[in-house]
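Consider the following assembly input.
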Amino acid sequence: MTAQPLKGLSRIDWLEDFIPGTRSHLGQIGFTEAEIIAFARDFDPQSFHIDPEAAKRSPYGGLIASGWHTMAKIMKLVSQSSLDRGGAGFIVSPGFENLRWRKPCRPGDILDVWTEVMSVTPSASRPDRGLVIQEFSAVDGTGDVACSVTGKVFFRKRDSGGQDER
Amino acid sequence: MTAFLHFEDFEIGSTETYGEKRVEAGEIMAFAREFDPQVIHTDPVAAAESPFGGLIASGLHSCSMMMRLMCDGYMLRSASRGSPGVDEVRYLLPVRPGDVLRVRVTVLDKRRSASRPEMGIVFARHDLLNQKDEVVLEMTSKVMMGCRDLKGAA
C-alpha cells in the first residue's frame, strides 16, 4: 500500500474539497459470526450466510458474510465520516456502480477501507452542486481487495449557502 | 414456478414478480442507526423538516430488503452459489414507512462457465416496486447458478 492517508480529511465537506486522485483511509471493518448470521437472517438467508454447518459443505467451505453486509459496513464508514465533518455538503446519492465481491469475508476478518476520488463534475443544470465519484475498497490482511464499489454522491458547493431543496 | 431452479431454468427475457414486504418506520431507523446514521433515516422529526418531508429508508436498506425479496422469491429454492457483484444500482424514488415493496426480476442474459462447467452466470435486472407500481430502485447484477446437467452445454 503506497497511498498516503489524506491530511485534513476532517475539513472535507463541500464539493470543492474533493480532489481527483486523492486517496484516504476511512477506517476498518470486521465481522463476528453472530453479526454475519443476524444480518443474513434479516436480509440474505442463504445457507452459507446463516448456517455454519451447511456452509462447510458449500463451495465456500465455511460461513461467509452476505455481500450486502460488507457493503453496508463500508457505507457506515462513509456515512459516519460525512457526519463527522458536519454533513452540510452532502445532498444525496443517486446510486453506485461496479460493486464487486472479489473475496468472501469470514468471521474474524478485519478489512481496511480506502477511498479514492475519481472525478468531480459540477452540475450543468443545478449550479449549487456537483457529482463526486469515489472508488471505495476493502482490503484484507493479505493485501487483497475483498470488496470494491464506485459510489456517487451529490455535494453542495461551499458558496451555495448550504441550504436548498434537494 | 415452485420447482428447484438451476441455471437451465432461467430463460432470457423472462420476467417474474415476487413479494411483498411492508416497510416499517422502526426497521428504517434500526438499520440506519447501525449502517447509515443520517437524520433523514434516523429521526422522524428532523426528516419531516428535510427536503424529503419525512423519514426515508437508507438506500442500502432498500437494497437489503430487495435481497430478502429475491431470496424468498427464488434464490432459496435455487442452486445459487452467490454473486460476484452488481453492475449498477440506481436509487430512483424514496422508500417510506408503510410502502409495500415487491421485486420484479428480468433475465437479461446467461452464460455457461467455460472454466467451471458445473455452473453458469445469470445476468438479471431487479426492479424494486412500491404499492403504486413505481420503480423505486433498479439493479443489474450477476448470480452464479449451479447447472442441472453437470456436463452438457447450455
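Chain A has one domain: 9-160. Ask yourself how this observation constrains the way the partners meet.
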